[in-house]
Structures are given as C-alpha cells and as structure tokens.
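Record type: ASSEMBLY
Status: queued
Input:
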Amino acid sequence: MCGIVGLFLKDKSLEPELGAMLTDMLVTMTDRGPDSAGIAIYGAGNDKMGKLTVQSDTPDADFSDLDQDIKAATGTAVTIRTKSTHAVLEMDATAVATVRAALSDIRPSVRVMSAGDTIEIYKEVGLPKDVAARFDVASMSGTHGIGHTRMATESAVTTMGAHPFSTGSDQCLVHNGSLSNHNSLRRKLRREGVHIESENDTEVGAAYVSHQMQLGATLGEALESSLDALDGFFTFVVGTKDGFGVVRDPIACKPAVMAETDQYVAFGSEYRALVNLPGIEDARVWEPEPATVYFWKH
Amino acid sequence: MQTFDLEAQGLRELNATLHAQADNTNQTSWEIVNPKGSHAIAVGLDAPIEVTVRGSTGYYCGGMNQQATVNVIGSAGPGVAENMMSGKVVIEGDASQYAGATGQGGLLVIKGNASSRCGISMKGINIVVGGNIGHMAAFMGQSGNLVVCGDAGDALGDSCYEARFFVRGTVKSLGADCEKKEMRPEHIEILTELLAEAGMDAKPEEFTRYGSARNLYNFDVDNSGAY
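Status: finished
Output:
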C-alpha cells in the first residue's frame, strides 16, 4: 500500500498553515502504511542561502559543535537548527556542496536527507503522528510539501528506506508501488556517475528523474521519460523548488485522487486525506489518468 | 427517514444497524451524513431499503449489495458495488477503479466517469456510466451489460466471455478477442430499458455494441500444443 499526500499552495495566505494541513492529511493515511513516515517541506527561500537537512541516530553527539567543526574544516559559517534526530544547516548557497562533502569526514554517521535552497526533509521509522510531532511539522510554513507513510515491500524498514527521497538539489520524490527493474537501472545510473545510497527501489526512481533533469529535462519531461525507463507499479509525487508533479504507471492500480481550487492543488492516495482541506466541497476533484504527467509551477 | 452520522457513530454501528433491517422493515429510508471518504459504507445489505450517502465514499461502498438501493451524493472510491448481487447503486459523481467488479446482478449507475477496470469480471451485473470509462473495462466479463454514454479507454472487454458492451462515443482500443457487433432489435430493447432505469438521456440508436469474438475461450485444435 503506502499513503501519499501532497499540497501545492497557490494562495500565499495559506502558507503558514502548510505544515498543519499536510500533517492532518498524512495522519489520515496512517493505515495505508505504519512502518515509517516522512515529509518534505519547501519553505521560504533566500537565493543566496542554502540548506542541508541531516539526520543522525546519535544526534546529541553528532550535532554538538557541528557548526564549529564545519567552520574549521571548510571555512564556511553555518547556522544549525536541531530538531530531534534531524538538523538543518544553513550556509551560503555556494558552499553547500563543499560542506556536504566535508560532512562525511567530520561526522561519518550523519546522513544527508536533503540539500537545496528551500527544501527540508524529515523522515523516521514510526507512525505519521509520532514522526510529525517529533519534528513539529505542524508549525512549519511553506509553499508546497509532500508526505509519505510507508508499508515496506522492497527494502528494510529504516530511516534511509523511508520516503521522501531526495537525489538532487531541492528535488524529492515519494512513491506508492514497487519497481521491478530497480537493480539493473541502479547499476546503469551508477555507471553514469549517479550517486545512489540505498538498495531501495524508490531511490532509483528518484535518482532517474534527477539525472534526467541534470541532463537538461524539465520536470515534466523527466516524468514523461520515467514511464519508459521504469518497470513496475508506481504512483509518484515529485517536488522541485518551484514545482509539483504527479505521474502514474500505465496500469494505474495504485490509487490517486487530486483536488484543485483557486487556493491549492492537493494530492491524496485516497479522498479521505483531502476532506478537511478548505473549500474541498467545491474543489475540482479527479483521478489522475494513467501514464499521464501532471505538473504545476509557481 | 433515519439519519446516521458516520463520523459520530462509526462504521461498525452503521453496517450492523443496516444489516439488522428485516425484509419487512418499516425503516426503509436511511441517510448517512459525514461519510468523508470512509471505506466499506453500506456493505453487505440484504433488505429492500434505500440508503442515501451525503458526500463522497472510499473503498468498497455498497459492496455485496442485495435488494437495497444505495445513492451516493458525491463520488465513490475503488471497488464501489463490488460483487453486487441485486438492488441498485447510484453514484452522482465519478467512480474510481474496478467499479462493479465481479457483480452478479443488480444495476450500478455512475452519472460521472468511471476510471480503470470498470466491470472487471462482471458476472451478470448491469452497469450504466454517464461519462467515460478508463482502460481494461470488463476484463474477462462473463455476463451482464456495460453501457457507456461517453468514451471507453484502452483494451475494452479484453478476454471477455458473454458480457455485452454498448458504447456511445469512441473506444480507444478493443482488448483481445473483443469485437464490434451488430445492433439487433433485442439489443435496442435491452439498452432502452437500461437507459430508462438509469435515468440517462441518450438514444439507444447512437450506441455501438461490442462483445466476444469467441475465439479465445473456445478450444481450437491449432492451439493444442499450448496445453
């Protein structure tokens, strides 16, 4: 199963509510997958500043003095915001790659959840309500966000196996389904120099889309080509810095419902996830067509 | 009319209450409020009652229905009226995938569109859709009628047996062993009745009939090597 929710706001006045709305939607989807949960939020951005969201199983040890150690190793000034097992490091946008590279030496047990200008990803093993509370997702504001609750099939129930997967700057992808050609595609992408961390099928899908975009494709084009490259069942919801996309495989047995009003575009694995959104009674509600790419841009 | 607040009273109580209605019950009219996309609303009914759901439903609404009429004033999630035996289920909006799957009798009316696999493995149910239907409709359909006032998606009637399909608009593609057929007077008669019962304003003459070419499910000596 797995449950997906997504919200792309058109109305700026709803931005302070983004985290609360997404949390409510995700908690409603709990019984589609209680193994782990994650959420990607695209917050307010400043083009000059970049963010790394990192995770550690031993946050007290890993996050203490991390800013000073980064400064010592790279000369980059970073600010650190710690939230439970995650921390958001903010720095000059041009230094993100350097800091990320240095992290593996300074703190080998720290894992990077996301990198970019506006994206923050929080994900852990556990129920959506517990994961959301742990990171206080409900208080977060933002322009768009994606949430996922997982019922694991293709890889172990771990933090790194949880969704969303981020394989490019400000990019993330969540998945309901299972890919059958992920091993061969992972080998192919690795040969082409793409970094893939886990044995998870979804990460390969995410890496494929990121790789296509790196080669110059738009989000829409990358999703379009994923229909040929990926074999298996999938409903994907994808986020970029200013975009939000949805695509389902041609068989389309993994459920999907969308709603659009003047204020937002919303995605849910089931209509239940959407029922508390403002104005849902008058929203245009539809099921995305199989093998059809949908995307919206700010 | 009896009104049931699903959010306040819960699904088990709803279905237990509806199941408790005898054939000769006086409480023949029920209204369900606050469905909020919940699953398995009004499933397994077996009494001549009329249930109206005010809002959209989740998985399997009206499944296994016998005798009852279930109206959904909204859209329905996957598997609406799955395995219906008799009675009537009417959806004012759209229906998600596998609407009316394996149904053995009764009438399912979808006033909007139905998505993929509508009427998959239908075994006697009649389904009337006001709008379009998605791909793989009536896959392995055995009997009954599927009426589509709009267009049909890919692979209509793939590997079908004796179910009949009437489509007013276009068919994106026919499934294996499904073919276009002649509309004879008896088909016009069936269609006239179904359209009237479903309250659809469409002329039977505008529809094309499709059905099994009967090549796939009959033994052919040329295929003996495959067994």
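Annotation: The helical segments of chain B are 6-9, 11-19, 185-198.
Annotation: Chain B touches chain A through 17 residues (CB under 8 Å).
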